[in-house]
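Limitations
The structure tokens in this dataset are predictions for the assembled complex, not deposited experimental models. Users should treat interface geometry with appropriate caution, especially where small molecules or nucleic acid strands are included. An illustrative entry is reproduced here so readers can see what is and is not provided.
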Amino acid sequence: MDEELISKKELLELKGISYGQLYRWKRKNLIPEEWFIRKSTFTGQETFFPRVMILKRIEKIMDMKEDLSLNDLADVFSPGVPGMNLNTEELIKRGIVSAGAMEIFLKAYGKSGGLDFEGILISFTAQKLLSSGDIGAEECAAAVACLKENYMKFGGKNCELIILRKLGAAFCLLLSSANDIYFESGAKVIFRLSMLSCVEELKLKL
Amino acid sequence: MGKSGNDLKVNGSMRLAGGVYDSAAVNGALEINGTLECGELSVNGMLTVNGSLKAGSAAIRGRLDVEGPIEAGSLDSKGKTDIEGALKIGKIKVEGMLDAEGAVEADTIDIRGHFMSEKGCNAEEFSSIGRFKVEGLLNAEKINCELYGKSYAEEIGGRDINIREGQGLNKWLKNIFPGFNMMDGRLIAGTIEGDSVRVEQTQAKTVRGTDVSIGEGCEIMLVEYKNSFKAAPGARIKESRKI
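Predicted assembly:
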């Protein structure tokens, strides 16, 4: 993706934050290292960020820093929660996954009882897919199977889940971020989801 | 090996396979081929760890060499410490030399002497009297440096950044005999960014900050400031602008 960039200067100006804050957030791993893009400009080196992602992230940090310490915030943005284990009933009871979605998820995931963070994330993704109204049960099951097999291979890096449909047949792909992707004209993207934002959303619910 | 109630005491020279101890005291030389984990570590002499080191507190008088990463509540080193892996330490205090090949993460870093970091350095407070060399980013809330000898940092970022020339005898002699410069205290840096930035004897491509003060002996290509900007008469600044 030839995404739009924002310079550090512009970012600070736009959000009214200081260098000190930005460096503090970087130190606390609230802003991932990969987002700092160094480029030479005519005035020397400058740092740029992926515009949409950094603006969203800074808004979130500023929203939440009232209630959470920086270290708690870092946990929200980190890609996994080691040692997490929740029961499927618990997930349903807490309203994270609906009973219907859980049934479809379990059939495809092939494991019941306690779920680790990855499992919870995939069930939560299934819930999102189904509640969007665009995805049928079978397509959702295919996505769950795809995530189960491949999500760990990204090793916590952001990836995107894309579901395509052409002439009634759907298929599902996972790709690492920052890739250009084009489709043939008959194909239609029916669902696109950044797994990292999904992780963040889920963590706030847990 | 599980958690044991053992204390390790070495007087003389010894080689061990590592282990978990409540405390370890070395007078002489100890070489560990494996991982050493202990609550309290005290070394007079030399400790070599061919593996990783975990300690509640570590006090070293002499030499410490660690091949892997080190994790400690505090590291107090008088002498020379070489770490090949990453450092995750609450409080670092060094009189002498610390050479870190991995990334450094600490609450406070207090160096008198020589500090080298090859993969960047994160701390809440960084203070140095002497010289330092940081490849990558030196990132700390408060940075206080007194320069003796040549220091280098690719990038410096934080809230309060204060770089001063050495305050000792050298400065005093320089005042009496202009041109005298035995301990050429200088900092060479790429970019320096902070809320409050004060530098002396610094050569940098870019200095950016809310309040920027450029002192004597500086050579800066570009200064960008938001609020205030001061430059000493002897400072050479190619370009400055308010943003």
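Some entries come with short summary sentences. For this one: Chain B has a mean pLDDT of 92.
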